[in-house]
Amino acid sequence: MGNYMSLYVTNPEGTPKPLTQPSFDPNFGFPNGRKQRVMIATEQEMEAAKLPLEDRDYCAHKLIAHRACRADVWPWAYKCAHAKHEYLNCEYEDYIYRMKEYEREKRLLLRKQRLEKKQAKELLA
Predict the structure, then answer these.
(1) How far apart are CA 85 and CA 79, in angstroms?
(2) pTM of the model
């Protein structure tokens, strides 16, 4: 409920809006740039595997491999524990990445607010 309160009550200008693109340059603060995230699974592969839309993320290739393994060894699905572990680990890392991006956006919004306050104070003085 903390983010909800921040977004709508206590600090709406300093809290990132959910389901929106970042408002700052992704390379801001990275002198040598950042590594671009790329999808490994193509749209055709995801459609062929009949992945639902909510599973079509950066870990889709791991999920396709896990489902293929389960289909190959079906009655003994426990043999695909390694593929399941890889997929779940990828999902966890993706979640951590998204949370770090959210926090980065939040810090940059607060920094922008502080700079605007400082400039306004200097103009008045």
Answers:
(1) 11
(2) 0.84
